[in-house]
Amino acid sequence: xxxxxxxxxxxxxxxxxxxxxxxxxxCTDSISTGSSPAAGGSTSGGGTVNCGxxxxxxxxxxxxxxxxxxxxxxxxxxxxxxxxxxxxxxxxxVANFNSSVPANPGVFKWASQIGGAGYSDGAIPADSxxxxxxxxxxxxxxxxxxxxxxxxxxxxxxxxxxxSTTSSGPYDVYxxxxxxxxxxxxxxxxxxxxxxxxxxxxxxxxxxxxxVGTCSVDVNFGNGNTTSQSLNDGFLAKYSPDGxxxxxxxxxxxxxxxxxxxYIDRVAVDSSDNIxxxxxxxNSVNLGGANLSGGFLAKFSSLGQHSYSISTGRGxxxxxxxxxxxxxxxxxxxxxxxxxxxxxxxxxxxxxxxLFIARYDASLNYLSVFVHGSPASDSTHPGYIxxxxxxxxPQNNDIVASGWGAGGNIELGGATIDASFPIMxxxxxxxxxxxxxxxxxxxxxxTSSSSGTSIAIDQSGNIFFVGYFQxxxxxxGDGYKESSGGKDSFVxxxxxxxxxxxxxxxxxxxxxxAFSVSLDDNGGPIMCSQLGGTGDFGGGLLTSGLSNQDTVVxxxxx
Length: 558
What we know:
By secondary structure, this protein is mainly β. The chain has a domain at 28-99. The protein is built from no helices and 50 strands.
């Protein structure tokens, strides 16, 4: 080497042959990423990269936000959350996010009230369904809401007055239909001299209405009295869309009639108008096939003809997935065989009481079941789980479940949860039972309690969740709030990953308890609640009769 200087000076005193040597300088580009707004999400990828290399940057939205696009110097360069390009210059990229929460979330739309004046006059809702059929005259969804429940004494439409209806016995079933704008279209009584309770309702593709529940002694379903031979029969009835015509009715009586009962808890209808019911008997019952005991699941044709029926766990909740499978959930105590066709699938509760979620195909053949309760290793402080309700996500067949636990430690498929104080939970599972997400709310004292009673999931995977709480509960992370009376109801909207988008708490001076939620075609929740005393659902104060048992149907925006 003659010199390491790029400028080399010397005295010429001989012939010379000089070679200038060069070292390649690495070519790199700087790729920076950021989020707008900063709370909207996070980014990954980029940094210092080699010129000409392939680069992928990825944007991930936080709870309450959706990814919008990638921009550079204000210009959109990609609408994909994962953006791949070739590095040929320094770049500064921004991932943009939009809030997934409406500007005015959960805005009050309307409320309708059914009740009576006296101490023995009241109506309690149990379930609701929305008519999603398209009206051929308007080419818009009908949007009517059908509610089932039970009532006592004399009740009427509190909003407009009008005709009153009086129960024939201690309690009668009621069916009520509301227009999409909240006006009461009709109110129907089903009952006799005994106690008759409606528990669930569904609407088929023709607009006909399916209703289930329990009934006793003589009951008029619309075709004259039919007689029960048991303490309580289960029933399944089908009515025309206007509620005036009884298509058919099935009554299910315990095999040993005296002092026994059959309870039908839930009904669902598939796209072919096949009907599924789930329930329980403290004896044995024949639904059209073999005699069954304990919990049961059954399928009927649109004409009420028996297709299949099996013994299983007591399903307090029932839904259908996108593959045509039937999913049921409930509380398990002791051991139950969930198997079918001679294929035994016994499961035993883990602790005093556990939740179970079971899947069957459209012919009620066993597919799977999973059980969660107290940790298997915990014999000194076992907790219990009750009142499990489910809904199936229409996008991916995931199962969202709610319930409550107390008494000690519980597990929901992941880490152990301390439920020494009563705890409410919302949990998402894959269809095979893998835990995907869990959210819990714990009361501050042993007397605090809360429970989810119904779940609905929209086409984007957002979850609507209703229920009640009593005492001190921190629902939104903003500190413990105390119920105004005995119980306060709530309605909440959650992301698919169980992040809270918004919630509303209904405060009453006596007792308010939400029992069901269904969704209109715009994704707005329709909540059915019991009103006791005076409370504001968003449209001003409503006051119940002296029984503190009025039905309020209230609709909110998404």
